[in-house]
Design goal:
The chain is of the alpha+beta class and 141 residues long. The chain has helices at residues 11-15, 19-28, 43-49, 59-66, 81-89, 102-106, 125-135; strands at 2-9, 32-39, 71-79, 119-121. It binds 2'-deoxyadenosine-5'-diphosphate and magnesium ion. The active site is at 120 (pros-phosphohistidine intermediate).
Length: 141
């Protein structure tokens, strides 16, 4: 089924010049880039985006990190792109993410800052819809 997902290239990925590599992997897999924008996240956007993690010990460092520099926000579309992109991204912690994945191949400096894992990808149809509306408020679906 054709789906849409929200991908973010996080501030570490943008700083390290990895936007192109992330987009290339999405495109090489056969997904389409439907929308793409470089943004500075507002506090409100981050609070909404990471609402499920509010109150967890890593929440504040995560939000601070996400506000530390520009983010590339992407809507990608394709057959099964929601789980498909998460499989391209790899495990949350880049020290255990498999080689061949974005986090496994490109991640570094872990342990103290697992939140620096280059990309975000929506984890369900509901999350994708909710998250696309946060980063592309004018999106009509
Ligand atoms: P994912 O990004 O793989 O969907 P998640 O939704 O569980 O992972 O967490 C969101 C982000 O929060 C994740 O990309 C990195 C950070 N994070 C998650 N668990 C963490 C932990 N135990 N310590 C530090 N940061 C964490
Ligand atoms: Mg998540």
């Amino acid at each position: 089924m054709t789906e849409r997902t929200l991908v973010l290239v996080k501030p570490d990925g943008v700083k390290r010049g990895l936007i192109g590599q992330v987009l290339a992997r999405i495109e090489a897999k056969g997904y389409e880039i439907e929308k793409l924008q470089l943004v500075r996240a507002t506090k409100e956007q981050l609070a909404e985006h990471y609402a499920e993690h509010a109150g967890k010990p890593f929440y504040q460092p995560l939000v601070d990190f996400m506000a530390s520099g520009p983010i590339a926000a992407v809507v990608a579309t394709g057959d099964g792109v929601i789980t498909g992109f998460r499989s391209l991204a790899g495990a949350t912690d880049p020290t255990t993410a498999a080689p061949g994945t974005i986090r496994g191949d490109l991640g570094r400096d872990w342990g103290t800052a697992v939140q620096q894992n280059i990309v975000h990808g929506s984890d369900s149809t509901e999350s994708a819809k909710r998250e696309i509306a946060i980063w592309f408020p004018a999106d009509e679906g």
